[in-house]
Amino acid sequence: MKLFALSNLCFFSSLFLYRIASANADGRETEHAILPPRGWNSYDSFCWIISEQDFLQSADIVAKRLLPHGYEYVVVDYLWYRKKVKDAHIDSEGIDLIDEWGRMVPDPDRWPSSKGGKGFTEVAKKVHDMGLKFGIHVMKGISNQAVNANTLIYDYDKKGPYTEAGRQWRAQDIAIKEKPCAWMPHGFMAVNTKLGAGRAFLRSLHKQYADWSVDFVKHDCAFGDDLDEGEISVVSEVFKGEHNRPIIYSLSPGTSAAPDMAQKINGLANMYRVTGDDWDSWPDVAAHFSVARDFAAANMIGSQGLNGRSWPDLDMLPLGWLTDANSTQGPYRACKLTLDEQKTQMTLWAMAKSPLMFGGDVRKLDDTTYGLITNPTILEIDHYSSNNKEFPYINGGKEGATGPGAGANATGVRSWIATGTQGEIYLAFFNLNNAKTAISAEITDLGKALPGWKLNPSCKGTEIWSGKDFGVMQKSVSTEVETHGCALFVLNCK
């Protein structure tokens, strides 16, 4: 148990040093997203129906309970501009709120402080007063509603209608109707960024978010199958100039994303989803192993990003008290993952240095879930570890290291390795099988993944989730791992 106390001390000391190192004399960050962002997102617990009251109540709890652990962003997920009326759903048409320039504005029935054209300004101020940072989800391009109304395009710099070639430009001039959002075809479509008017619309849209004092923008339907390099470039350029309040630029969804695709845009963003939506089912968790491995192997973890670094995003953590995808019901049920599966998710996310965005209802945050998302060793690994990669030199069952399955059908055993700031080695074993499995690794093989490290033939080690001190392990590290479970070792082999 001494290791837990030491880990707590190291974590909070490191967090304090990070906050000093990441700011210069006048308080501005010297490098943006220097560490994988952490926070809370409303989607897993409220879907799209969250209200201002529920959001601010949740933010207050995040500030008191999770901010000390680095969870600093609170994000309103999608459709904050949609009226909550009978039969409304994610692909409803004609019930959204837009201004005279075709830009989305919050539904005042759910966000009363937005009345009078204030947008999210008042909400952002209250969030900032709590010591947190405020984020919103936005969609690609322009809404069908704006196109149908053929609204004028706003010139942000000239503060009036966008004019070029002797005429005022409108929504239908820039809309690309043959490029709708794949999963919301009646909601949004791409804009033509080759046109000055198309770029002007996007600029007016995202400069407005900056004016609302937004700190985090989750840009959906612009990556993966819906990749739009033109739009990403325009938005990135807007945020690149926001020095007074740097904005985290997050891309989503990541369906069919691959490292070569991410390499085209990682320098333009700070986070980008590499899988589809992750919900509380084992197939969803299992589908992340090969994807996370590929992005780590391509050296994408912590690579160049917008005004700093970028991070492959394995999606939110659907733990605790939740709702369902596409629901119009708030949080009403418990996470369906077993406790072992939840530990596996937390461990893989940390070993892959994914952003940690908790999705459960913080108003009903139970002790077990709280312990999972604030485990000091997990948080230390997620922020400060290095050399993060899949470790293939393991033994476990008949199916070997990776097993015959892939994606959501993955089986067999997996392992990841990373190194700590004090010379420790983190070694995680994962059991993707449907039965308890013994997993082992030869200590001499650790050096294969860590070239240049001089390791002893024996290691002292503790397993984090059980708290068990394994003492000095000769030649190999081995343990039995529960179905869909994991073991996370902190090893001293020098």
Largest beta sheet: what is the strand line-up? 14-15-13-12-11-3-2-1-18
Gap between N and C termini, in Å?
Answer: 22 Å
Number of strands: 26
Quaternary:
single chain
Give the CA-based shape.
elongated
Task: Compute the number of structural domains.
Answer: 2
The overall pLDDT, averaged over residues, is 92
Structural class by secondary-structure content:
alpha/beta
The fourth-level CATH homologous superfamily of the largest domain is Aldolase class I
Gyration radius (Cα, Å) is 23 Å
- Could you describe the largest sheet, including whether it forms a barrel? 9 strands, mixed
Summarize the structure.
With 494 residues, this protein is α/β, with parallel strands linked by helices. It contains 15 helices and 26 strands.
Give a verbal description of the structure.
The protein has 494 residues and is of the alpha/beta class. The chain folds into two domains: 2-384, Aldolase class I (TIM Barrel, Alpha-Beta Barrel), CATH 3.20.20.70; 407-492, Immunoglobulin-like. It has 15 helices and 26 strands. The strands form seven sheets. The chain has a nine-stranded mixed β-sheet with strand order 14-15-13-12-11-3-2-1-18. The longest helix is centred in the first third of the chain and has 20 residues, at 2-21. The chain is elongated. Belongs to the glycosyl hydrolase 27 family. It catalyses: Hydrolysis of terminal, non-reducing alpha-D-galactose residues in alpha-D-galactosides, including galactose oligosaccharides, galactomannans and galactolipids. Its EC number is 3.2.1.22.
